[in-house]
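Team,

Forwarding the record for the chain on the shared tracking sheet. I've put the sequence and predicted structure together so nobody has to dig through attachments.
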Amino acid sequence: DHAQLRVLDVPIAYFPQLRMPDPTLKRASGFLIPELHQNSQLGFGAKIPYFLTLGDHRDLLLTPFLAEHTTTLELRYRQAFRNGQMTWEGAISDDGITSDQPRFYVFGEGKFALPKNYELFFNLKSTSDASYLLDYDYSDEDRLNSDVTVRRALRDENSRYALLHYESLRDGEDNATLPSIVGLAETERRFFPATLGGEARFSLKLHSHYRKDDSQIGGIIGGITVDSEARDMTLATASAWWRRNWTLPQGIRAGLSGELAFDGFHTQQDANYEGTEYQLTPTLAADLRYPMSKVAADGSTHVFEPLAQLSWSGGNTLNIANDES
C-alpha cells in the first residue's frame, strides 16, 4: 500500500496499491512490461501484453497493439502434455495498409512421443497475404514451409513419414506452379550379415509432389520444347548396399562395396515426359587406402589418406524431368 518509486530518494511515482510477485512465484496472471513501437506504415503505437495462466500446464499471452493506423490483437498459446508440448502464435489486424481486411497469421509447432520410439512433429504456418509478416515485423520468411512428420531414429534405423506444404510469398512466384504439396515416406536400415561380414544397408523411399496448375502441360510448340509448369511426379527408389573393409600389412586398408538400386518415376501433366520410367542400377567398387595420422604439438590431429579406387556402374539415363531438387 502507498508504494513510491524513488530516484536518489526523490519520489517520482506514487501508487495507492501495487502488487508485485516475489522471486518464489513461478507463474502468475498479470500485465507484462508495455512496449512502444514506431513504424512508417503503422504509425506510433503501444503493445500492452497480458499473461494469463490456465492451470499448471497451459498459458495464454494476449497483446493488444494499438497504433495510429492499426488495431491488432496478438496471441500466443502454450500447452504441455505428458508426452509432448505445443505452441501456437498469431495475430489479427484491422489496418489501413490494404483493402483486404482483416489481416492475420498463425504459426504452430509441437512435438509428441509416440509408441515404439516414434516421434510426431508438426510445424504449420499460414498468413492472409504476402506482406503481412514483414509489415508487422513478425517474420522475414518469404517461403512458408509447413509439415507434419512422424520419425524414428535408432542405432540401426532412420525412418521418416511426412506431409509437407510450401507457400511462396515472393513476388514473381506463382504457388499454382510450385510443387506446393509433397508426400514422403523413407526408411534406411543397417545390418551386419554374419556370412558375408561387413555392413549392409537397405533403403526405401516413396515421394510424390503436386502442383495445383493443370493447364500448362508444355510440349513441342513452334518447334521449341516448352517445359510444363503443371507437372506432377511420383517416384519410388530402393537400394541394397554392402561394404566390407580389411586391414592389410603395413596399415593398408582395402575395401569392397556393391549396390543394387531401383529407381521408378511416374510423371503426369507433362507432354514431354508423360508416363513411367524405371530401371535397375548395379554398382561395384574396390579401393585401397593408406591412412596416416600425426598429433601436433598443440594437440591437434592431422589425417592424410591417399586413396585409389576402381568402380563400375551400370544403368542408363532415364527420360525424366529434373524435378528432384
